[in-house]
Amino acid sequence: MLLLAATALYAAVIRSALPEHKPQRRAALSIYAYFRRLVPTWYIWFVLAFGYYGVFLWLPTILVRERGLTVLQSYEFMLVTTLAQLPGYFAAALLVERVGRRPVAAVFFAASALSALAFAYSQEPAQLYLAALALNFFNLGAWGVVYAYTPELFPDHVRGVAAGSAGSVARLGMILGPMLYPAMGLSSLLVVTALWLSVPIAVYALPETRHRGAAEDTTSRSAHSPSGSPS
Nearest to residue 210, comparing CAs of 134, 138, 149? Predict the structure, then answer.
């Protein structure tokens, strides 16, 4: 707890050194001018959180109940496979600047879906390890892309409302996702697979921001009118 408190204090010190942004009035109303971006963004966040928490919270139980591992073996499995999360983040961070936000997000979500499908049909320990390593790598990379991409989609006067509402939708996914496995068993992985495979469609409904970024978007919309639809 002391370490967590020290981390929070460190974050507060960093935040105090940053300039304060004073948003324009009625940001909550002007956000509706960006509805065409907001709906796909909400969908991406919901499906990402729904699938992640629907799968990962139940992985130890799945390994014990469905694949015959002991409780100790299931936690050893989780410890080893979650190590793939860090390189997944780094790979996504590198690729979004070289390839673009949309193609990287689409590939990482599709690869997450195929990894979940492979895990559902894996029986041998080596197969389970490979599928889980891929799932951790690609799905945590997808989280990294979405975190970076979302603020770039909206100018500064609505960015807080947009990102905050997306986070709220994700919380809904976090609540509903863990209910899937108790209701459907191992078939829940097939549902998650289908949902993650649908995300590239939502991603390509949004603009690419690789060469633009949030700062440039804000500058280009300094004379923003709520009646103008974002492209």
Answer: 149
